[in-house]
Amino acid sequence: MATLRELSHREDRLEGGHRLCAGCGASIAVRQILLGAGTDPAIAGCATGCLEVSTTIYPYSSWKVPFIHNAFENSAATISGVEAAFKGLKRAGKIPADKKVKFVAFGGDGGTYDIGLQSLSGAMERGHDMVYVCYDNGAYMNTGIQRSSATPKGAWATTSEVGKAQQGKQQRRKDLTSIIAAHGVPYVAQGSISHWKDLTSKAEKAFAVDGPAFLNVLATCPRGWRSAYNKSVEHAKLGVQTGYWPLFEVEEGEWKLSSPSKALIKAGRKPIEEFLKPQGRFRHLLQPGNEELLSEVQADIDAYWEYLLKRCGEL
Predict the structure, then answer these.
(1) Among 11, 146, 162, 190, fewest CB within 10 Å belongs to which?
(2) Is 299 in a helix, a strand, or coil?
(3) Could you report the per-residue pLDDT of 250-274, keeping only the tens digit for each?
(4) How do residues 154-210 score in pLDDT, each as one tens digit?
(5) Measuring CA to CA, how many Å separate 90 from each of 84, 93, 127, 211?
(6) CA 103, 83, 115, 294: dihedral to nearest 10 degrees?
(7) What's the longest Cα–Cα distance across the chain?
(8) 202: closest CA among 184, 219, 215?
(9) Does the bond joining 212 to the residue before it have cis omega, within 30 degrees of 0?
(10) Distance (Å, rounded) from C-alpha 52 to C-alpha 209?
């Protein structure tokens, strides 16, 4: 894998000066992942969402690679079509047979877990040589902080309010990473913007495999999380340290716990309250009367951690 020195000499393919919010985790994720693409040409696609609307405000673009904007639900379908066209042009002799291009699709959790799940599943099943990246900030942030199936249990959102009827979202978040791993694709991984070395290494692996790869990345959203914009990386790190967002990868069906999470087996995970406290969307969970719901949240984290340790052969 590339060293820090090598990565520092690679071109930054997402230019500064975009209009994403201060502290947005999406741009951090994109930069780290595109560093993992190496020096080969790359083509990026992006579903409608914060990342798209804030980096491509006409007539400007922050992307230093060919960029395709498509609808909310079909980023994976679009890039899989571009990849198929590229292979077709090679077969027709219109592109040199040895030419290499990386194909990558980006989408938020709304455009990936929910609206775009069908096109993502189809692209993975068909076996296109592409990387799909979900920057998971836990809600439909671009359209008003509505809950998605990636929103954690107990979190406030504009469609999972806090009041007498309920205390935030009532359901557990979807485990999309395991769902995509069940497609039997060559490479699937979960990463976080707080662990750049782990994430760029996983991106290198994803771009190197022959066939589809999927990266699910925890990307903080100060606006939706109601958190400090200058603490985004720190908050993402707490997600890893508490076990809310464990880091792991699935290579050719083999599940492996990544080093930052593997270290927690001996060191112990921090209580989930440490991840929740800095975020205003969870403020109600820490108030008297919600002890049972808070215990449920911790129990869900513990159960998933045990599931993951078993899948990775650590239990």
Answers:
(1) 11
(2) helix
(3) 999 999 999 999 999 999 999 999 9
(4) 999 999 999 999 999 999 999 999 999 999 999 999 999 999 999 999 999 999 999
(5) 10, 5, 18, 17
(6) -30
(7) 69
(8) 215
(9) no
(10) 26
Burial of 2 (0-12, 13-18, 19+ CB in 10 A): middle
Report which DSSP code applies to 14: B
Asked whether the beta carbons of 214 and 205 are under 8 A apart, the reply is no
Classify strands 213-218 and 131-136 as parallel, antiparallel or unpaired. parallel
- What is the residue type of 89? L
pLDDT in tens, 198-244: 999 999 999 999 999 999 999 999 999 999 999 999 999 999 999 99
CATH of the domain at 260: 3.40.50.970
Output phi, psi for 199, to 5 deg: -70, -45
**Residue ranges making up the domain that contains 244:** 4-311
Structural domains in the chain (count)? 1
Cα–Cα distance between 180 and 73 in angstroms, integer?
17
Answer yes or no: are the C-beta atoms of 194 and 240 closer than 8 Å.
yes
CA angle 283, 285, 286 (to 5 degrees): 75
pTM of the model: 0.97
Please write down the HEC assignment for all residues of the chain: CCCHHHHHCCCCCECCCCCCCCCCHHHHHHHHHHHCCCCCCEEEEECCCHHHHHHCCCCCCCECCCEEECCCCCHHHHHHHHHHHHHHHHHCCCCCCCCCCEEEEEEEHHHHHHCCHHHHHHHHHHCCCCEEEEEECCCECCCCCECCCCCCCCCCECCECECCCCECCCCCCCCHHHHHHCCCCCEEEEEECCCHHHHHHHHHHHHHCCCCEEEEEECCCHHHHCCCHHHHHHHHHHHHHCCCCCCEEEECCEEEECHHHHCHHHHCCCCCHHHHCCCHHHHHHHCCCCHHHHHHHHHHHHHHHHHHHHHCCCC
Residues belonging to the chain = 315
